[in-house]
Amino acid sequence: MKSVTRRRVLGSFGLAAGTCVLSSCQSGNQVSSSDKGGWGYPWPYVELDPEATAERAYYAYEKGCMYGVFAPVVKQLAEKRGEPYRSFPVNMMQYGAGGTGGSGSLCGALNGGAALIGLFAGTEERMKKPIGELFLWYEQTELPVYTARKPVSDIDIPKTASHSVLCHVSVSRWCAGSGYKSFGDPRKERCRRLTADAAGKIVEILNARLVGESLSGAELNEDVKTCKSCHTKGSILSNSRGTMNCGSCHFSLAKDHPKIPAT
Amino acid sequence: MKSVTRRRVLGSFGLAAGTCVLSSCQSGNQVSSSDKGGWGYPWPYVELDPEATAERAYYAYEKGCMYGVFAPVVKQLAEKRGEPYRSFPVNMMQYGAGGTGGSGSLCGALNGGAALIGLFAGTEERMKKPIGELFLWYEQTELPVYTARKPVSDIDIPKTASHSVLCHVSVSRWCAGSGYKSFGDPRKERCRRLTADAAGKIVEILNARLVGESLSGAELNEDVKTCKSCHTKGSILSNSRGTMNCGSCHFSLAKDHPKIPAT
Question: Which of B87, B92, B166 sits opposite A105 (nearest CB)?
Answer without folding.
Answer: B166
